[in-house]
Fold:
Amino acid sequence: MPILARHYAGRFLVHFFGALFILATFLVIVELLLDLEEILEAESTLLGMLGLVVTRITAFYLPYLVPFAAFIGAFLTAGLAARSREITAMKAGGVSPMTVAWGMLAIAAWISVVSFVVDETAVRWAEADLRSRKTGEATTIAVRHGRIWYHTGRYIYNIKGIDGDKVHGVRIYERDHLGRLARLIEARSGRKAVEPLWRFEDATLRDFDPDRPRTPPKVTEAALVEVELAPDQSPNVLRESLLEEPIWVLLGEAGRAHPSVSATIHRRLSQVPLSLAFVLLAVPLGFSVESVRNLAKPALEGSLAVAALLSTREYAAQLAGANGSPWLLWTTLGVFAVYAALRLYRSPR
Structure:
């Protein structure tokens, strides 16, 4: 990398980390002001409170903080250089401003990669930690006399009769994390062992493949079957837990073709080029300060473009989760990248 490109790449990193620190500090203050009561209920020490706030910021905001900080850092680097006529001096000396742009884009590519790794590790851990804090106590499973259907967790079951602590004529439908039928258990009798564990005798098990609904079930017989009828193992809870897993776990999940899982995979993958796309737009906007002589107009244009991209991206992700079609998500990002690339291409050299 040429010396001039390294110089501006270093400026970009300084502005990037400065913007990231300021944005994170602002969010810490906002979290403490808006959710202080909830934080005090969860933690009693100052260190614990700060740890909870950092966890919340990591889980909710970090995937957006890094691209925003990259945009601000690139815009300030190019814009301040243009306002102080450094860009004009480069062109007068026969040096293309694109030299500055390539240096910042190279750093932005590394930021995108590091940000993706952090999203799939630290952000996922923070989400899992917050979810574990919200998980309540499992309620006791009660049975009543009569032919009644029951529902707990991912199980739907039916009991024909009750004799003391023993149930008869049991049929249990087990669902997977997406709510699809995974197993049917028919047992002659059963009784509660230790909450939430139940033991069923003389059982017939039919295992289904949710991804192959036309495939006949695998039928097995068992003298004794143990089932944990835990309320906190509902498909919604299991699905939320799955969606908090790193993307390499989602890619290996049998139900990855389901719209909600597929949309999550594509949404996270679309996060990878986000910082690079933001920098690709910020650099030509910064260069335009040379002609307009102020930072306000280009900054407003960039803010509107970034807001439009993020809003459309969120709607596209919701639509992908509803119909399983991620094309709008990638089209949105592609249109933004083409727009940013054209702005950079048309920048004065």
Q: What stands out?
A: The first strand starts at residue 148 and ends at 152. The two ends are 19 Å apart (CA to CA). DSSP finds 13 helices and six strands in the chain. The first helix runs from residue 3 to 34.
